[in-house]
Design a protein that fits this description.
CATH topology of the largest domain: Rossmann fold
Low-confidence stretches: none
CATH superfamily of the largest domain: NAD(P)-binding Rossmann-like Domain
Helix content: 25-40%
CATH architecture of the largest domain: 3-Layer(aba) Sandwich
Distance between the termini: 38 Å
Number of domains: 4
Structural class: alpha/beta
Strand content: 15-25%
């Protein structure tokens, strides 16, 4: 009989699900990492929320652990790489908190608009300061939503019900989807300039960290109000405090902080700030929903081997897994490369399976391509939910199969059409190892390492020497250097594996080299 440990406080319905499915379950909360490490070896499954930190030492001690289930979306508290290396499946519940978090954002917006927390405290203190708390109406005001995905779209719907005008910045929001939601798609700068209220609903990735900083705040209209119920690192708290002190920003409602638990913050003690302790998902309904969902998913895996909402494991049968495994890796790399190279809303993805791979069950491969494609810009993407998310974003996905792989035994080509361009890349397997063989129609022969530098350029003398010297001066070692060109003197590409990611300053110097069109760092 499998054994599961629930190490965080969650609805008792989770334990009931495990017991009903014939799984032995223990509930032990408040464990230190040392306590957890001492007992985790006895369990096949670990169910957590956000408090338990499942890091290297805990995972190393987990001799029998097969699955970690996170009742919620964020898995910042789980070392995903360590779990994967250990062969432990990590699951989450990506959609269970959407409505609850969206409703909290709307509640924070209303509280901010009418100074409700401050007025409440004043009235409880026996004061009657009616003239002090002069709020603003939200009817007819412009709400700017940064990130119009699963949660942001619910916020947009609720705000429209309150007669607000909604504009949205989201590079992956298609025009058809924006029309369906009734929002106006705009650039980030346009949103900052027009919005009376700004609500954040993006994941915390490199591209969104401090998306609201001093420069962004300077672009906003005077009197803007900011709501963040997404991730703390999206906002530069010191810059926001300065903007509040100056009066440029009228107020902020903050549910998440750069450091949590937040016992101190530059924003604490400011009358213009409404603060809550990460309550976005804190409703009875949401907690019951995610608790039941994660228990069902973990039970399905432990008893039947079925995988749902896994962040680090493809959904394939035991029979298919050995044959599909190398193609899964190739598909993920192709999708991730395309996703990191894409800067505008995706309209269509065509995946061509040529030769031997065209005879396989390609649905899991397509899902892995989409996972890689959407992963750089979205949180909680896995091969189970990636096709649904692509559909919700009006991304048309096509599979094409053919027996002809040209000079290759098998070949996968991914073509991505965006608002601005169409880009394709292709790869194959060489002794079961993935290799890129074509980018934008230009032949190349390259393997992808952890840190890659992708450069498009004009085929002119001197670039290789200048690039090598620049990286050498920066102390960055080149592991591999691969070149391709369409024709002599025409468009060309360079794909380098480097031992460490070039910092922004070095990348800017590379971009400034003569004949370089685009220089981009990528991670795999």
């Amino acid at each position: 009989m499998p054994r599961v440990l629930i190490s965080d406080k969650m609805s008792g319905l989770a334990a009931e699900v495990f017991q009903r499915r014939g799984i032995e379950v223990d509930v032990k909360t408040g464990l230190t990492p040392e306590d957890l490490s001492a007992i985790i070896g006895d369990y096949d499954g670990l169910a957590v929320r956000s408090s338990t930190k499942v890091r290297g030492p805990v995972i190393e001690a987990a001799k029998n652990l097969k699955v970690i289930g996170r009742a919620g979306i964020g898995v910042d508290n789980v070392d995903l790489n360590a779990a994967t290396a250990k062969g432990i499946v990590v699951m989450n519940t990506p959609f269970g908190n959407s409505i609850t978090t969206a409703e909290h954002a709307i509640a924070m917006l209303m509280a901010l608009a009418r100074d409700i927390p401050l007025a409440n405290a004043s009235t409880h203190a026996g004061k009657w300061e009616k003239s002090r708390f002069m709020g603003v109406e939200i009817t007819g005001k412009v709400l700017g939503i940064i990130g119009c995905g699963n949660i942001g779209s619910v916020v947009a719907d609720r705000a429209q019900g309150l007669k607000m005008r909604v504009i949205a910045f989201d590079p992956y929001l298609g025009e058809d989807r924006a029309t369906e939601l009734g929002v106006e798609k705009v650039t980030l700068d346009e949103l900052l300039a027009r919005a009376d209220f700004i609500s954040l609903h993006t994941p915390l990735i490199d591209a969104t960290r401090h998306i609201i900083d001093a420069e962004a705040l300077a672009k906003t209209r005077k009197g803007v109000r900011l709501i963040n119920c997404a991730r703390g690192g999206l906002v530069d708290e010191a810059a926001l405090k300065a903007a509040l002190d100056s009066g440029h920003v009228a107020g902020a409602a903050i549910d998440v902080f750069e450091e949590e638990p937040a016992t101190q913050s530059p924003l604490f003690g400011m009358d213009q700030v409404v603060a809550t302790p990460h309550l976005g998902a804190a409703t009875t309904e949401a907690q019951e929903k995610v608790a039941v969902q994660i228990a069902e998913q973990m039970a399905d895996y432990l008893l039947d081997g079925a995988v749902s909402n896994a962040l680090n494991m493809p959904s394939v049968t035991a029979e298919e897994a050995p044959r599909l495994k190398p193609y899964m890796t190739l598909a993920q790399q192709l999708g991730s490369f395309a996703g990191q190279a894409t800067r505008s809303a995706i309209r269509e993805v065509t995946i061509s399976y040529e030769g031997v791979c065209g005879e396989l069950n390609c649905k899991p491969l397509t899902a892995v391509v989409l996972q890689g494609l959407l992963g750089p810009s979205m949180e909680g993407i896995n091969m189970v939910n990636a096709p649904t998310i692509a559909k919700d974003r009006d991304i048309h996905v096509r599979e094409v199969r053919t027996d002809d792989a040209g000079a290759f035994h098998s070949r996968i080509e991914v073509t991505v059409t965006t608002e601005n361009q169409t880009r394709s890349l292709a790869g194959t397997l060489f002794h079961d190892r993935p290799r890129l063989v074509e980018i934008k129609g230009i032949p190349i022969d390259a393997t992808l390492g952890r840190n890659m530098l992708y450069i498009t350029n004009y085929d002119k003398p001197g670039l290789i020497g200048a690039l090598g010297s620049l990286l050498g001066d920066a102390g960055i070692n080149i592991a591999t250097f691969n070149l391709g060109r369409a024709q002599a003197g025409g468009d060309a590409i360079a794909l380098l594996e480097v031992d460490e990611a070039p910092p922004p300053a070095v990348l800017a110097k590379i971009q400034g080299l003569e004949h370089v069109i685009l220089a981009q760092a990528m991670k795999f």
